[in-house]
Amino acid sequence: MNLNRFFDYWIGIPLAWLVSLFLPNGKLPTIPRKLLVIKLAAVGDTLLVGRVLQIFKEAHPTTELHWLVSNINKSVAVEFPEVDNFLVWDRKILSLPALLKKIRRECFDVVVDLEQWSRGTAILCGLSGVACRLGFDTPGQHRAFVFSQTKKKTFDHHEIDDFFGILSLIAPLKISRELSIKPSQTGFSEINVLAPFIKEKKMKVLIHPGCGEDGLPREWPISQYALLAHWLIKKFNAEIILTSGPEETHKTYQLNQLINGLGKNLGGKLSWPGLIALVGQVDLVISGNTGVMHIAAALKKKQVALHGPTDPKIWGPLNSQAVVIQSNCPDCPSLKLGYEYHSLDQSCMERITLEQVKAAISGLG
Predict the structure, then answer these.
(1) If you average pLDDT over residues 322-346, what whole number do you get?
(2) Cβ contacts of residue 204 below 8 Å, gap of 6+?
């Protein structure tokens, strides 16, 4: 358990219970005038929530949608024009009073917390001054008592279904699992400068080897990606494009070294809008379970998604063009909330073979 989760659990639970003792519980309005949604992290979850809000806005065009985001997911969330306003929290305790003042000033009818385990966002809901507070009742997380109405969090279907389920407490929604996001002009301008080669008439394969902070157990080994890249170049004369976040540039550098510098290394160079635009113009995306996987799904690209401790039933790509390869590790999948790794190394992902990935790519045509 990292330090943030430690404090969230041992301080968050009693504080959430204490806050709940003083909260009013209001009746849900038939059609909310102003709705605040809270989702602070994870690019994949942000794309899923964005799709749910698209459907909600279609059903209730008069509702003013506000979304509380963080610096982690803001640049992806703002790609959804259906949201009327974004509030940004830097996730620091010292800035919480100013944030709560801003939220209270907005006089929301309903606040919906779409975080699955955090007590911090549940407490924020309780202190928001909003009588109608919706959130997940997640087993073992002791956060449900802060909300006026809850949805039981289960682990037998895709995460997007839970997001639809909690918004459907307000009013029934037509569920659509087909993700939708459009590359922006900002993104196109960025790749025109950083990736002019994208216009070449070659098979373009994007490999994203990293899975973010604490994501090592979800990552296929760099050495395996290198062998795969060599095969793609030899068999398809493919252009290999390597991407990563700014904190993982050493991974794309190492991978490019292993393939003798034959890849186009864009590790750490692209913003999220730029990466979205780039994904939209490649032919194939290969990655573990990370944000790029969901971007590829939203853009309906051919993709191979590698899973070990993560359960594709819950977090897999919603894309008919995707092939999912699940590790045969007997203890996988092991995650429900996203951090309960049974092993902190790559032993789960190492069980996915190079031949499996080659066969998946060949099957995509």
Answers:
(1) 94
(2) 198, 238, 239, 241, 281, 282, 283, 284
| Whole-number Å distance between alpha carbons of 163 and 49 | 7
CA distance 316 to 180: 16
65: left (phi over 0), alpha (psi -120 to 50) or beta: beta
- Residue 45 pLDDT exceeds 70: yes
Between strands 110-113 and 85-89, the pairing is unpaired
Tell me how far apart the alpha carbons of residues 272 and 245 are, in angstroms, rounded to a whole number.
9
Torsion, Cα of 197, 198, 203, 208 (10° steps): 110
- What is the DSSP track for 75-108? HHHTT-TT--EEEEE-S-GGGHHHHHHHHHHH--
The predicted model scores a pTM of 0.94
pLDDT at 1: 53
CB-based contacts of 73, cutoff 8 Å, min separation 6: 39, 40, 41, 42, 43, 45, 46
Residue with more model confidence, 93 or 301: 301
- As a residue count, the chain comes to 365
Query: Which tokens is 351 given?
Result: 């069980």
286, 322 contact by CB (below 8 A): no
193-220 burial by CB neighbour count: b if 16+ within 10 A, else e? ebbeebeeeebbbbbbbbbbeebbbbbb
Residue 6 has pLDDT above 90, yes or no: no
Do the beta carbons of residue 292 and residue 223 sit within 8 Å?
no
